[in-house]
Amino acid sequence: xxxxxxxxxxxxxxxxxxxxxxxxxxxxxxxxxxxxxxxxxxxxxxxxxxxxxxxxxxxxxxxxxxxxxxxxxxxxxxxxxxxxxxxxxxxxxxxxxxxxxxxxxxxxxxxxxxxxxxxxxxxxxxxxxxxxxxxxxxxxxxxxxxxxxxxxxxxxxxxxxxxxxxxxxxxxxxxxxxxxxxxxxxxxxxxxxxxxxxxxxxxxxxxxxxxxxxxxxxxxxxxxxxxxxxxxxxxxxxxxxxxxxxxxxxxxxxxxxxxxxxxxxxxxxxxxxxxxxxxxxxxxxxxxxxxxxxxxxxxxxxxxxxxxxxxxxxxxxxxxxxxxxxxxxxxxxxxxxxxxxxxxxxxxxxxxxxxxxxxxxxxxxxxxxxxxxxxxxxxxxxxxxxxxxxxxxxxxxxxxxxxxxxxxxxxxxxxxxxxxxxxxxxxxxxxxxxxxxxx
Length: 439
Description:
It is built from 18 helices and no strands.
């Protein structure tokens, strides 16, 4: 009997297709672990933050997070461009060229962050604070405007280093580093909030710990690629290659930033900090319907990039259908409990006051994110085969439509109108990607 089991184990070990499936599965698990870990931390931490800061300061903190999410514009699409270029260079075994892409991408991100940071500060100085008068007075908003560029800088530089590790298909390393750094960040912020109850101190600690995360990732990249110096540098040819792909990722990020930020900014400016706090709490839970499948399928981008030319149309179709089915099923499995049990989930998590006001909002957001999750595999495939232009235009068009709907619906329906705009965004992306693949 033992001999038979040994033969069976040996068979599985030396079956290339099975080994490839197992390898991809491990990558998917690590990639999803990286993205799931932080939301789980925040699910535990959110009630403590809400209690320590109060609804008003928590809403103001969510304004800072929202402004930070605009950092994709500062990044110029360098995160995705780094994944693609490093994956190609890594496939050729050219570590030197991979390091050039990393260092040049870092410089582009820094320059973009300085530009966006100056725009934010100038807008605030020229009177943009009046738009958010419902969120607080000028003295309360000032630390948020100053802190946002630093958070943007740390996130975008980190995206380059994370992109380099993903391009080298070191998903396990990225996940471990991300879980370590996010634990440090959330833990430090929790202690600050509980002890001080002050948002300004929380912002300072958050910025400092986010740069600790950058230092951890940069050290890992330097070790993996054998780079003596990770200091940003300029190389015109390398920059042109990064920008050639990154420009479409940048346009896509504009659409995505409109999708992820415009509704929160509009809700905050019209309804105030308390309403933004409730909306952000529901978003935090509902967006896992899409982000977990997207995280699990994250390995598909470098995989398609390296192997799309070797697959014929039939095998490509099989791979797209299989990955789409798996990721869509995962999204539905996550969405159903949220839709069915929205009220009791919110009661247990953050209390009956938020649950009574926001359970319908949570259901609608979960359905919207479920729609957005359906074309996740198609998104990675189109990126991998060089169709970033189509992805970018689709996201930009969906983002603009979402913005217009927010401007029309939020003044009349409040946060429910913002949730409806997210549902429409997902429907547009689903239609666009499906039409492109079926042509």
